[in-house]
Design a protein that fits this description.
about 650 residues; alpha+beta; Helicase, Ruva Protein, domain 3; Trefoil (Acidic Fibroblast Growth Factor, subunit A); 9-stranded antiparallel beta sheet; 5-stranded mixed beta sheet; 14 helices
Length: about 650
């Protein structure tokens, strides 16, 4: 009996020990799950779900227009397909309908990510180093795959974006004098119009909250979201529900794809504020960004202004401040650029905070008086989907009585995309938009554009844009011609001469290739290469009467010499008599002679050494490119300019 009692007592102690261990394991798993669920959100305000989910019991859940109070929006019949609405599933959305006041934490959704409800075995503590490494590599590989898929879908790393608070504050980048600026208390109110098409949830909502968090309420009439026929499920009823809890935010939807200009025009027609602020759907605002814009427009209602556009990296979402001064420009291919590091004409003590007149503005953020916007013709309704609409608006505003400025005391960060996620039905639509600009506004100067964009030239040869209404608008507004614009607004843009037989692609007889300069090397110049002739106009150059070989669509780079290597460098404003950038073309021999050294330009392909000179050549020549050599009759020194577009062909 005594032995049996001892055995029973031992079994009881073992059972208690096992129960204790089991309870400890359950508590540990519960704490671990709670920690993992809250990790990454302990240092930020609660926000909407990172991947909003949605369930549709029937097609009636699709809201065609959210702002039902707006009777002005006429609905069409070409509704969005419903198949894409099943991408995600919403499990629970708190509703404020029937309540007098919305909850304090607006938009706090309870969600379950796809696959999160599947039963998975709890991982045992790693007893071997190999097991821990295998798990780590698997997790890293899965995360890389997820990030790659996000980049392919949106053109930026959405996985990183989802980990960032919707209310993050950007570091201060304004000049110290901006911080003490005083603005009128009677500034006009603004409607911030944000158009979007299949935008990522986190970037769209971060844009909205950034405006709400930084714009003073007394100056913000509304934030107007305009859905340009998005197909992603999270931008349907989930977004409608979320926006319904945001004070001062309205959402309307287009029933057909409008593009940037049409979508913004739709929002402008339904905006209530005196000032329209068009903003892309992936921006973040600095504190104090709105007041300078409103004040400058209020002082002159024909003035169109933009903040300094800082950059958000598409991969890391790191904020990068843009160096002042900066202005918007475009080249002869009608491509837009932000230009920085140029000398200011006015170098007074206030130059760091004074507005800067600019030939053009980008489309990221633009502020304009609502009545002036409508009277000057809004956005051209003939522009297709996306591309060059900001250049058309810039030329029209300047030519028809307005002006444009960049304001250094206003800063907004814009997300730089790795690539555009949109797939356009017509791959040539950008050229068609540029054709409208050239034929409407550029007068005889449009020939320069067509010689640098041969695809646009051939499209124009086969079809003509219908610009009758825009030409009528141009006449009724009394707009100035493009020569006035070039000489008064944008005198910095070099006007090519494009003389016959002295402009076009610079073709080398010996190699059967053309002189080339990869744009990735940057606007400050670099070594010239030899490459297959593109035939697109991107290799266009122009030998002018000053002896300069001007390169590229802006004509700001000149053929130069650095040692024996031919390079491109920024063109000089005043040409000395013995400049390194002066050349002479001998038509009889086809040689291009460098005036300062009296050497000839020679082409060397990759891996081939020069055969024209018996002396030793530098190691640079083994990499290929353009070099200066003693002038002899050799095919590699024989050049001719191929003009792809006939002088009278446009």
């Amino acid at each position: 009996m005594r032995l049996w009692g001892r055995a029973t007592s031992a079994r009881r102690r073992m059972l208690c020990l096992w129960l204790l261990l089991l309870g400890f394991a359950l508590v540990t798993l519960a704490l671990s799950d709670l920690f993992n669920r809250d990790k990454g959100h302990s240092h930020q305000n609660p926000g909407p779900p990172r991947r909003p989910l949605q369930r549709f019991s029937s097609p009636q859940d699709l809201e065609v227009i959210v702002d039902s109070r707006d009777p002005a929006l006429e609905l069409g019949v070409d509704l969005a397909p419903l198949k894409s609405l099943q991408e995600d599933q919403l499990l629970f959305v708190p509703s404020t309908q029937g309540t007098k006041s919305p909850p304090q934490k607006k938009g706090s959704y309870k969600v379950l990510l796809p696959g999160a409800n599947k039963e998975t075995a709890a991982p045992a503590p790693p007893t071997h180093g190999e097991m821990g490494k295998a798990v780590q590599l698997h997790l890293e590989g899965s995360e890389r795959d997820t990030e790659l898929a996000a980049v392919q879908k949106y053109g930026f790393n959405e996985v990183v974006s989802e980990k960032i608070s919707l209310h993050r504050r950007l570091p201060e980048a304004r000049h110290s004098e901006c911080l003490g600026e005083q603005y009128s208390e009677s500034l006009p109110k603004a409607s911030v119009v944000i158009c979007f098409h299949d935008e990522a949830w986190s970037t769209l909502l971060r844009t909205v909250h950034s405006v709400l968090d930084t714009a003073p309420k007394q100056y913000l009439q509304e934030v107007l979201l305009v859905d340009d026929l998005s197909q992603h499920g999270h931008l349907k009823s989930v977004l409608s529900e979320y926006v319904s809890h945001l004070n001062g935010v309205r959402l309307i939807r287009s029933t057909k794809r409008l593009g940037v200009g049409g979508c913004r025009a739709l929002g402008a027609g339904r905006a209530a504020g005196e000032i329209l602020v068009f903003m892309d759907s992936h921006c973040e605002c600095q504190k104090g960004w709105l007041e300078p814009l409103l004040e400058r427009v209020a002082q002159d209602r024909t003035r169109v202004v933009s903040p300094v556009m800082d950059v958000i990296d598409w991969q890391t979402f790191q904020y990068n401040a843009t160096q002042w001064p900066v202005r918007g420009v475009f080249d002869w291919r009608l491509d837009f650029y932000w230009e920085s590091n140029f000398p200011l004409q006015d170098k007074g003590p206030d130059s760091a905070v004074q507005p800067l007149r600019t030939p053009a503005l980008g489309g990221g953020v633009v502020a304009i008086d609502r009545h002036f916007f409508q009277s000057v013709g809004a956005y051209d309704p003939g522009m297709l989907l996306w591309g060059a609409e900001q250049i058309e608006l810039s030329i029209r505003v300047w030519s028809c009585g307005g002006s444009m400025e960049v304001l250094p005391c206003s800063r907004v960060a814009h997300l730089h995309h790795h690539h555009l996620p949109y797939r356009f039905p017509d791959q040539d639509l950008l050229q068609r938009n540029k054709i409208r600009i050239a034929d409407t506004w550029m007068d005889a100067y449009r020939k320069i554009f067509y010689r640098r964009d041969t695809l646009a030239h051939f499209i124009r040869q086969s079809e003509s844009p219908n610009i009758t209404e825009r030409l009528r608008l141009k006449r009724s507004l009394g707009c100035r011609n493009f020569h006035w614009y070039l000489t008064t607004v944008y005198p910095q843009l070099y006007i090519p001469q494009d003389r016959p037989a002295l402009s076009g692609e610079l073709y080398n007889v010996g190699t059967g290739s053309c002189a080339d300069y990869p744009r990735l090397q940057g606007p400050q110049g670099g070594p010239m290469n030899i490459a297959p002739c593109s035939g697109t106009g991107s290799q266009h150059c122009d030998l002018n009467s000053d002896g300069e070989v001007r390169w590229g669509p802006m004509g700001a780079l000149c053929l130069d010499a650095k040692g024996e290597r031919a390079v491109l460098s920024p063109c000089l404003t005043q040409i000395p008599t013995t400049s390194r950038t002066q050349w002479k073309f001998v038509k009889l021999s086809g040689q291009l002679v460098h005036q300062q050294s009296q050497l000839c330009l020679e082409a060397v392909k990759d891996g081939n050494l020069s055969q024209s000179s018996p002396r030793e050549v530098s190691t640079h020549s083994s990499t290929g490119g353009l070099f200066l050599r003693p002038c002899i009759r050799h095919p590699r020194q024989q050049w001719h300019f191929e003009q792809l577009v006939a002088p009278k062909g446009t």
